[in-house]
Design the sequence.
């Protein structure tokens, strides 16, 4: 690291000699007998950490000299030496010369040394702050670039992927209407399921990215959570049947007036929650859907048997994009779906949680997974 530079300006050579003896071992010492000579030294030295200048000098006062240093050495720390306590001179020095400190003659060597050391530290901190500001500015530009990239990504998904997907779906429907044989129908059904799955992934990704960007559009309207649940459950009948699951309802009286929510978004959140419960529940077990009217709103609880959810997953439940293969199980279960649920519930300001409830005597599992949320 380069030795800090100290410039001392005084028209009396004895003062310069005295100050040089004090500071030459600690700093790179420059001296000048006048403001004009000091300005010439400044032109040859782009970096000057600290300037000490006498106030009373011929042709150019210390305040006038220090003021002239501002355009070229704005970061340099300035100390003014004066044999007078004229308040007007001191005010001028502060306002015009931007001095760090003024010291009266005759000076105390210890006090002057401490003042110079503090001025050097002040200069060094200013340099560090500038470096940090440059790093922050660079990071801000990178974040801005990432934000622009994210917006382009959303446009890409919304248009460049959804448009060809719509075309595929349209021609797929035409093929299904063309009386295919059983083998062909089987192939087309698989294509249809994969197309629908891709559509769901696109919609989920759009919800997440729009939510993170603060651009998620929603349209809250008065609605019935009971009616919403009763509308969604039948769409899972085939999956319930495959796993021999029994759905048990415990619905309390619904408050009036009804809650306010975006029906399409809340449907998607409920579908993800039910899909997760379905995925984790053992064959032949039950899925409990219960609503309870409380003072703060309608409490909705989904309970299903299943293996305990790892604590690391519960801790990161409210973080977006928890895309871990061991958790997602090929995009099913505790993965992208719960991130979408979290985004939708945050948009609605709906508090929610998932917890493990021990059930040691149950023949299917030693754990109940309870999902709960409250709609006010």
Sequence:
């Amino acid at each position: 690291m380069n030795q800090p530079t100290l410039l001392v300006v005084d028209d009396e050579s004895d003062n310069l000699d005295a100050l040089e003896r004090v500071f030459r071992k600690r700093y790179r010492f420059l001296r000048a007998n006048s403001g004009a000579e000091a300005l010439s030294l400044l032109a040859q030295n782009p970096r000057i950490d600290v300037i000490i200048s006498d106030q009373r000098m011929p042709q150019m006062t210390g305040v006038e000299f220090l003021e002239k240093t501002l355009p070229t050495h704005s970061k340099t720390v300035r100390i003014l030496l004066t044999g007078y306590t004229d308040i007007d001179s001191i005010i001028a020095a502060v306002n015009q010369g931007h001095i760090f400190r003024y010291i009266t003659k005759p000076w105390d060597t210890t006090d002057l040394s401490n003042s110079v050391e503090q001025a050097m530290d002040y200069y060094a901190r200013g340099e560090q702050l500038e470096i940090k500001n440059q790093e922050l500015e660079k990071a801000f530009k990178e974040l801005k670039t990432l934000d622009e990239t994210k917006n382009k990504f959303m446009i890409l998904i919304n248009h460049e992927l959804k448009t060809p997907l719509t075309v595929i779906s349209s021609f797929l429907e035409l093929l299904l209407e063309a009386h295919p044989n059983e083998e062909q129908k089987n192939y087309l059904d698989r294509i249809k399921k994969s197309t629908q799955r891709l559509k769901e992934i696109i919609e989920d990704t759009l919800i997440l990215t729009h939510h993170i960007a603060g651009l998620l559009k929603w349209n809250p309207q008065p609605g019935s959570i009971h009616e919403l649940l009763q509308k969604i459950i039948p769409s899972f009948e085939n999956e319930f049947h495959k796993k021999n699951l029994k759905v048990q309802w415990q619905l309390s009286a619904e408050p009036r007036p009804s809650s306010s929510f975006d029906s399409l978004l809340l449907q998607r959140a409920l579908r993800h929650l039910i899909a997760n419960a379905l995925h984790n529940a053992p064959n032949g077990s039950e899925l409990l859907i219960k609503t309870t009217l409380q003072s703060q709103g309608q409490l909705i609880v989904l309970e299903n048997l299943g293996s305990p959810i790892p604590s690391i997953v519960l801790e990161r439940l409210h973080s977006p994009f928890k895309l871990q293969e061991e958790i997602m199980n090929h995009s099913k279960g505790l993965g992208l779906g719960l991130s979408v649920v979290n985004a939708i519930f945050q948009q609605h300001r709906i508090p929610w949680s998932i917890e493990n409830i021990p059930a040691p005597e149950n023949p299917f599992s030693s754990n109940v997974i309870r999902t709960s949320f409250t709609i006010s």
Observations:
- The chain has twelve helices and twelve strands.
